Amino acid sequence: MNPSDQQLIQAAGLARQHARARYSNFRVGAAIQTTAGKIYSGCNVESSSYGLTICAERVALTKALSEGENEFSAIAIMARDGEFTPPCGACRQLLIDYAPGLKIILSDGINVKTYTIEELLPVAFDDAQLRKV
Question: Based on the number of CB atoms within 10 Å of its own CB, is 44 exposed (0-12), middle (13-18) or buried (19 or more)?
Fold first, then answer.
């Protein structure tokens, strides 16, 4: 694992400490890195109206987007120790929309698994379906 990936995993772990998971107690942290090397982190924020809950991956992505970033290289995701937690379907969709080619780094606290967003969402609905010919 390269030092950049390790730094991203550490940022995700720190973000997990701020998770607002009072209903599920499922705390998730994520950290997304721009191609320039800047890191934006996020944690999950739950609502009593479950549909309003936002995942850590979307918090990190929207923080970066809202700061004007638009090119991303990797995202690290950390949830429970001893378990790998991939992004949910909604997060996968936003990640493919805004970060095609993104490297997804999953950490269980010790080990790491790496994917691309295209591996996790192989037949994605994207802007190609929206273009008029």
Answer: buried
pLDDT tens sequence across 73-112: 999 999 988 999 999 999 999 999 999 999 999 999 999 9
- Model pTM? 0.94
Residue 85, classed as helix, strand or coil, is coil
- For this structure, is 57 an active site residue? yes
Residue 89 burial (CB < 10 Å; 0-12/13-18/19+)?
A: exposed
Domains of the chain plus CATH, in order, are 3-130 (3.40.140.10)
Contact 106, 115 (CB under 8 A): yes
Marked catalytic residue, from 46, 57, 71, 119: 57
